[in-house]
Specification:
CATH class of the largest domain: Alpha Beta
CATH superfamily of the largest domain: NAD(P)-binding Rossmann-like Domain
Structural class: alpha/beta
Catalytic activity: (R)-pantoate + NADP(+) = 2-dehydropantoate + NADPH + H(+)
Domain Ketopantoate reductase N-terminal: 3-153
Distance between the termini: 54 Å
Keywords: NADP, Oxidoreductase, Pantothenate biosynthesis
Number of helices: 15
Pfam family, one: ApbA
Pathway: Cofactor biosynthesis; (R)-pantothenate biosynthesis; (R)-pantoate from 3-methyl-2-oxobutanoate: step 2/2
Strand order of the largest sheet: 5-2-1-6-7-8-11-12
Oligomer: single chain
């Protein structure tokens, strides 16, 4: 079985390293520094109690599918959502007869991919573990969590079982028959943690230690959950976390005190303490002068809200703030979150 991993950043690097011994994947990266580093030093992975180790042979990384000149049975797309369209268009030409693509992006990109990728050639995926790239070609898995995969039509085919057995080499992998609901549920988590961290510059611990910011967290979730109800999206637990146990209800949004609101606040505070050093991936993108994935995350909530006639003012404003930062019209600051308290 021939496997390609596209996008050798933090997530792609971890996956490629974990499945290397048994499946020897080909790596594809448009980043010249990453290609150069891996060709010279191998793909380096930081392990718990060690500095790093080389786990890949150098020749198996290429700057394009054309350079690799191979057909693949499985292509794992691990690029940023902002780059996934171009990556998928190129990948489609290098699938074997039975081959398929797996989309692992934050947010929801599958609706865009289905405009040119046949449904039978696409599988949805969610990454629940944390990862970081210390240097080009030097990655680390920073937190544990499951991988979730599923056919877009909800069927369980033999190929999804094969994919699970491969990805189990990375971390525990779960098959869902509700991949759209699972993707949207993960999107809601990212809409809070990733985007709030991006506009504020704070770690998750710093952010969720403040009551006013936990309120913003709940409001973002509230809008997302209400939109899901109107769209008929069935939410799923993500790495054991139920979105409904975090999101504010309409009664809580209206300012009325109740035990459920107090309980949700404690859970969110606990999440902040447990992952206190977590730094937003979108914040890292902004610091490098790159565009974020906000249009595929909070932007999806806004779009679904317009489609269903439900207003999403907090998500609309945070999307605007991110774009202002991207365009150099605003600085990253905790004050940006205070604008969302209304």
């Amino acid at each position: 079985m021939k496997i390609a991993v596209v996008g050798i950043g933090a997530v792609g690097g971890v996956i490629a390293s974990k499945i290397d011994r048994e499946y020897a994947p080909v790596m594809i990266s448009k980043n010249k520094e990453i290609v150069k580093s891996i060709r010279e030093n191998g793909l380096r992975v930081k392990k718990e109690k060690a500095t790093h180790c080389n786990v890949n042979c150098c020749p198996r990384i290429y700057s394009s599918f054309k350079e690799a000149d191979l057909k693949f049975d499985i292509i794992l797309l691990c690029t940023k959502a902002t780059n996934v369209i171009d990556a998928a268009k190129e990948a489609l030409n290098y699938l074997s007869e039975i081959g398929f693509i797996v989309s692992f992006q934050n947010g929801i990109v599958e609706n865009h991919l289905l405009e040119f990728v046949p449904e039978e050639k696409l599988v949805g995926g969610i990454i629940g573990f944390g990862a970081t790239m210390h240097q080009p070609g030097f990655v680390e898995m920073t937190s544990h969590g499951e991988i979730v995969i599923g056919e877009l039509n909800g069927c369980i085919k033999e190929r999804i079982k094969v994919l699970k057995s491969i990805l189990d080499s990375v971390i525990e992998t779960r098959i869902t028959q509700n991949i759209w609901g699972a993707k949207y549920s993960k999107l809601l988590i990212n809409a809070c943690i990733t985007t709030m961290g991006a506009v504020s510059g704070l770690t998750l611990g710093e952010m969720l230690s403040k009551k006013e910011f936990r309120e913003v967290f709940r409001k973002i979730l509230y809008e997302g959950v209400e939109v899901a109800k109107k769209k008929g999206i069935k939410l799923e637990k993500i790495s054991g976390v139920s979105i409904h146990k975090l999101a504010a209800s309409e009664r809580e949004i209206n300012g009325k005190f109740c035990l459920s609101k107090f309980h949700k606040d404690l859970i969110i505070k606990f999440i902040g303490r447990k992952y206190k050093n977590l730094k937003s991936s979108s914040l890292q993108s902004l610091e490098r002068g790159r565009k974020t994935e906000v249009d595929f995350i909070n932007g999806i909530i806004v779009r679904y809200g317009k489609e269903t006639g439900f207003e999403t003012p907090v998500n609309e404003r945070i999307v605007e703030i991110v774009h202002e930062i991207e365009n150099g019209k605003r600085k990253i600051s905790p004050e940006n979150l205070r604008e969302l308290i209304f």
